[in-house]
Amino acid sequence: MRAALRPSSLLIVPLIFLAGIVVGQTTPPLWKSALIATFQTGYQEATYRCDRAMRNHLVAKEQVYRSPGKDTVVALRAAEVALLDCQDYDMLRKRLILWGLDENDLSLMALQAIEAKDRDLQQVVEIHEIRR
Amino acid sequence: MRFAGSVGAILALLAAAETAAGGSLREQVLRDQAIKAGLVPVEEVMPSFRQALSGAGRLLFASKELSLTREISCQSCHLDSFGSSDGIPVGVGTRGQGEGLDRLQHGGDFLPRRTSPLWGRGALGFDTFFWDGQVDGSGNSVMSAFGDAAPSSDPLVVVAHLPPVEIREMVRDDEDAEALRTETVDSARKVYAIIEERVRSDDALSAALTRAYGFDREDIRYIHVAESIASFIRDRFRLQPTKFHDFVFRDGDLNKQELAGGILFYGRGRCAACHNGPFFSDLSFHAIPFGQLGRGKNGFGIDYGRYNVTRDPADLYKFRTPPLYNVIKTAPYSHSGAAIDLAGAIRAHVDPLGAAQVGGMSAAERAEFYRRLGSWAGEPIFGVELDDQDIRDLAAFVSALAFPDLQAAPITNATSRTE
User: Fold this and answer.
1) Which of A60, B195, B211, B359 is most buried as measured by Cβ atoms within 10 A of its Cβ?
2) For position B117, what pLDDT does the model report?
């Protein structure tokens, strides 16, 4: 009986070691996948909101430049407040990096965000074209 | 399974921590923006008034002696239960009975526009009255239907001259009122003379006025009636600090949704482009393409708004920005009462096509709608994108502009300044 158990006992250490490798190798991708799945929608929305805020801010600045006045200044101030959306985006991005995602993962999520929000090939071209 | 559950719990915690982040920055931004947009402590716009006049005004406000047929008072349409308005899309003047939906169902003489709430109407700096600004004290003199013969330099006193001479509002549109139907200054004076005589003959009303002014009842004139009503409005409907005032000036709290709505209000939503200053109104005129219920001021479901006062085509479809105090209590919304709730009112600002029943419109209605859209295209809010969550956040924010206890607003109290 004792003899029968002995080989199994000998296997415990390598089995634990093997299990450690398996867990060590599989947990990070699983964790990343879970993070991506959990935050994909929120990240998409944050990406879009920041992009929108930046576009509107740019237009508001141009308006102040071209026709300075109370109305355009008020519009610019509102656009500046709206840039808080980009603060949200940055915070989310930093947190996701802190929690284990890397730039590649975030780039993938951003691309998925663009695909989700934009059905126009032009935007995809703008991202990927080689500029001189 | 337990492992998966643990991972899920951790992720949920992370997500919650993410959404809670950045609160203090937002709070500071919101406080700064509110002050930049002109919000001041309510004490700074507290009006002066004489309490004795307010007491007389309270009686006059509730008295049906001010309507020729003794069937309606100011209070008939400015009710506490509806946030000092009447709770129905457009006012029902003479021949009306009951309150709220009962009044609507009973029928009567329908007015072209919604009854405005009265909160803050007597405050310092509040100088533009009615949806179309037909009484305007923002300049050196009071502009009104009285022309050069404005009965007072106080625009609120001028305002108190108008409802008793307005056909269908407090004067019946029938043969008995034929001589008054011209709505001229002369016909108005005839109505005032009748009201003066009634007030002199009423022991309670005349006693209150003679006590307040220190003269004999024979000296009572309509100007005294109007001044008293104006004093009562200044007293009874004066502003009180709201939750948002506490947040801005006393480091009070807003909940997460109110905070998000506030940031939208002063930021991307661009609401503060018009809803600014001490009253959350620029007291100016803007075109928001609300649906048009009822016949409208110009008939056939058309209301040209400010244009009816200025005759300037640039003012077509524009209405004075409504103040937002107690807005949660004053549904329905807009000059025509077309938006039944806050969410609908907010949506109509940015997405009029979403609210309009375009398919059921006649050709004339569609053309009229397009004209209103054309005027709207020049407004600051044109092109603003708000989703359903944004609208809920904004509704939560403007709900924080209510007085803590609306029903308990005192008639007079010692904190009010007196002349």
Assistant:
1) B195
2) 94
Question: What is d(CA B318, CA B307) in angstroms, rounded to the nearest whole number?
Answer: 7
In tens, the pLDDT along B219-253 reads 999 999 999 999 999 999 999 999 999 999 999 99
Closest to A102 in 3D by CA, of A52, A44, A28, A45 = A28
Whole-angstrom CA distances from B371 to A57, B289, B349 are 29, 9, 15
Kindly provide the ipTM of the predicted complex, given to two decimals.
Answer: 0.78
* Residue type present at position B128: T
Which residues face B128 on adjacent strands?
Answer: B136
Question: Given the DSSP bridges, would you call strands B128-129 and B285-286 parallel, antiparallel or unpaired?
Answer: unpaired
B115-160 per-position pLDDT tens digit: 999 999 999 999 999 999 999 999 989 999 998 889 999 999 999 9
A77:B380 CB<8 A: no
Interchain CB contact of B25 with A (< 8 Å)? yes
Q: Does B162 touch chain A (CB under 8 A)?
A: no
Q: In chain A, which residues have their Cβ closer than 8 Å to the Cβ of B385?
A: 52
Compute the distance between CA of residue B351 and CA of residue B195 in angstroms, rounded to an integer. 47
Contact (Cβ atoms closer than 8 angstroms) between residue B126 and residue B100: no
A84:B36 CB<8 A:
no
Q: Chain A residues with CB inside 8 Å of B274's CB?
A: none
Six-digit token string for B135: 């009484």
pTM over 0.90: no
For residue B321, the 8-state DSSP code is P
| Among B363, B372, B230, residue whose Cα is nearest residue B315 | B372
Helix-strand-coil percent breakdown of chain A, rounded to 5? 90, 0, 10
Q: How far is CA A110 from the centre of its chain?
A: 6
**What residue type is B138 in one-letter code?**
S
Query: Which residues neighbour B206 within 8 Å (Cβ) at sequence distance 6 or greater?
Result: B199, B200, B217, B220
Instruction: Report the mean per-residue pLDDT for chain B.
Output: 89
